[in-house]
Structure formats: structure tokens, C-alpha cells
Amino acid sequence: MFFPWQAGYHFDMIKSAAESPGWKTGFAATQIHRVERLIKLSRELTGDHFKLGHEEALRVPYEIRTLEKLTDSEIHESGVLADIARYQYTEPRFGRKRDLYRVNLQDHNILAMLRRRPRELNFSPLLLYVLTHEIIHVIRFVKFLAPFHQDLGDHLPEERMVHAQTRGILSHVPLRGMNTVLDHYEKHYASPSQASAKEG
């Protein structure tokens, strides 16, 4: 049982444009089953990337939740596809403080993004990207490779680094539509100089 005494949020740069109609619509039951399979796959892929053994991977303190399990304060009306909450709790038995990270998927915003780009983005590759990206963040926090709280000026370089790792992991996954998602976020995270070079 967890006894949270402090919560903080890491708001990710994985975003979609605002869309208000039906903004609280969650994943359908068939989609939830696909999400569960994609969670398992993303855990395996990130574990291999960071060279985590099976037991070590299981000890990374995080969980992933969809809209139906989020509280009102954890739901974003528009824009954010996922965020990470960190809870610090005290173990009842030994009194030691521990961290628990929660990846909160914003089903409604993910579905809205798919509705706007039906010819470009598909459900499974987009979800796999979002999940892998967020799990990389969590592992980096746990390994002290990046601070959970960052100044705005430090946030974008970290996001670009995590995107590069996500792309490196997923570029070898034989999933139809995966490269389209990777290219979409490559443009999203490109620096102004990189974007200008590509346009030229």
C-alpha cells in the first residue's frame, strides 16, 4: 500500500493540438487490449536498450494508467498525450522513502490526434512511441541521468535526447506506420537550424 506525501508532474513535449468535442472519450475495450500488449513490448524494448536484466527491469518503480483510472486533476483537456507523476511514499515496514512514477496516458488527446491525421498516424505505432518515450524518461529519472524537475530552458534538450533514444529503439521494429510516426516526431523535435536545413 502506498502512502504518497508528495507528487510532482513531468509534462511531456509529446503534444497534440487542442480539441474540445468529446475530450473525455477513453480507449475502447479492444484498444485497451492493444495498449496492454504495447506496454509489454515497450518494456521489453527499453529494458534491452538500457541492458536491464529481467529482475532489474521489474524493479523500476512505475506503472502506466489509461483515462479510466485517472483522477480529474490528472486529466488534461487538450494538448498533452501523456505525463508522468512522481509520488514519494514511506514504506510501512522499514520507514524508508521510495519513489513511484505513474505514466498517465491521455486517451482522449491521443484519439483526437489520430482523428486529425487518419492517413498519417495509426493507433499502435503512435501508442508504442508514446509509451517507449515515457518509459525512457522514467528510467533516466531512476538512474539519475536526468532530474525530474527541470527549468524550461533545460527541458527541450532532454526531450530531444529522449526522442533520439526512442527513435533508435523503434526504428528496428517491423510495425507498419512506425517510420511515419518517427518522422513526425523528428520534425517536432528538430531545432530551428535543423528545420531550416531540411526545408532548404
Helices and strands in order:
Blueprint: E1 4-11, H1 29-49, H2 54-59, E2 62-65, E3 82-90, E4 97-105, H3 107-116, H4 123-142, H5 152-170, H6 178-189, H7 192-199
Parallel strand pairs: 2-4
Antiparallel strand pairs: 1-3, 3-4
Beta-strand residue fraction = 15-25%
Total separate domains: 1
Relative helix content: 40-55%
Distance between the termini: 56 Å
Radius of gyration: 17 Å
Q: On the 0-100 scale, what is the average pLDDT?
A: 84
- The low-pLDDT segments are 1-9, 17-22, 195-200
N-to-C order of helices and strands: EHHEEEHHHHH
Structural class: alpha+beta
What is the molecular shape? Answer: globular
Number of helices: 7
Note the main sheet: 4 strands, mixed
Number of DSSP-assigned strands: 4
Major sheet strand order: 1-3-4-2
What does this structure look like?
A hairpin with a 6-residue loop joins β3 and β4 (97-105). By secondary structure, the protein is an alpha+beta fold. The chain has helices at 29-49, 54-59, 107-116, 123-142, 152-170, 178-189, 192-199; strands spanning 4-11, 62-65, 82-90, 97-105. The chain has a 4-stranded mixed sheet with strand order 1-3-4-2, with helices on one face. The protein has one domain. Helix content is 48%, strand content 15%. The chain is built from 7 helices and 4 strands, in the order βααβββααααα.
Short key terms for the protein model shown above:
alpha+beta; four-stranded mixed beta sheet; 15% strand; 200 residues; disordered C terminus
